[in-house]
Amino acid sequence: MNQKKTATVQKLYAAFQRGDLPTLLSHMSDDIDWGIDAQSPTAVPWYGIGTGKDFAAGFFKNLAKECQFTRFEPTAFLESDTGVACLVSYDAIINKNGRRVSQNVVHHFTFKGDDQVVRWRAWEDTARTLAAWNA
Q1: What stretch of H or E contains 92?
Q2: Which domain holds residue 90?
Q3: Which of its termini does the chain have fewer beta carbons within 10 Å around, N or C?
Q4: Tens digits of per-residue pLDDT, 63-90?
Q5: pLDDT tens readout for residues 23-66
Q6: CA–CA dist 126, 25 (Å, integer)
């Protein structure tokens, strides 16, 4: 396998860490299916699933407004013909109350070609983040 999709995901994580929204959006299809699976509607503004670049851009804008990452480490990548799964570990501070949250999460990117993301999902302990948000 050529690992081109993994290289794209690493490029996207680097863009995320420097706040480079144009680079992130340039690797998304116009109708991207984007989101973090949460059990039910929640007050955490970046949770939820939607479609389109506007939805994905709103996700990143909410995330940047509402929390600060003090550590963000993609630790393992698994590539298939159509996607990349990644384990990510992070620490963040919720801006509205200064609470800290640490997570080990799974991200999955589905691709069309080697550099166009058509679907992204994240799975994490949403109850842990909600508890920090509501503290």
Answers
A1: strand 83-94
A2: 4-134
A3: N
A4: 999 999 999 999 999 999 999 999 999 9
A5: 999 999 999 999 998 776 678 999 989 999 999 999 999 999 99
A6: 25
**How far apart (Å, rounded) are the C-alpha atoms in residues 113 and 22?**
19
- Half-sphere exposure in the Cβ direction for 115 (13 Å, CA): 9
Q: Could you count the other beta carbons within 10 Å of the beta carbon of residue 38?
A: 19
* Residue among 13, 1, 2 nearest 117 (CA): 13
Residue that is written with structure tokens 């984007």 in the block = 34
Domain with 121 in it: what CATH number?
3.10.450.50
Number of domains in the chain: 1
> Angle 130-25-93 (CA atoms, 0-180°, nearest 5)?
30
Both tokens assigned to 83? 């996607």
Q: β-pairing, 28-36 with 48-51?
A: antiparallel
